Amino acid sequence: xxxxxxxxxLLLIQYTFFAIKAGQAREAANIEAPAMSGDDTFxxxxxxxxxxxxxxxxxxxxxxxxxxYASATFAGLMGIVFLVGRHIYRKAYIADPSTxxxxxxxxxxxxxxMILIGFFGVLGALF
Length: 127
Prior knowledge:
Order of helices and strands: HHHH
Number of domains: 1
Structural class: mainly alpha
Shape: elongated
Number of helices: 4
Strand content: under 5%
CATH superfamily: Membrane associated eicosanoid/glutathione metabolism-like domain
Number of strands: 0
Largest sheet: none
């Protein structure tokens, strides 16, 4: 489970980095809070941050449930796949949002696998 805890920390560090980059983009564009629009670069950085936050609500519990009820190694590896997918997603989204599909699908598949394996692990524990 230490591996899953380590991956969780990496995910939190990555999210914090994305939040910092969004803040820097806001500052560079001179967009005063609470405004959320007005500069394409800022809006892209913000969408990366917010979408990652939305995905972490699924990823973190799915990873821990998968780890606890099935395989910590598999869960941690899927967490790493998600982390790499988010990196690919950010790079693509910042450059051209229409190219974000590979990174998005990488994270989606990792999440789907953790949910599926975790689901069967929980069912096994129940029955």
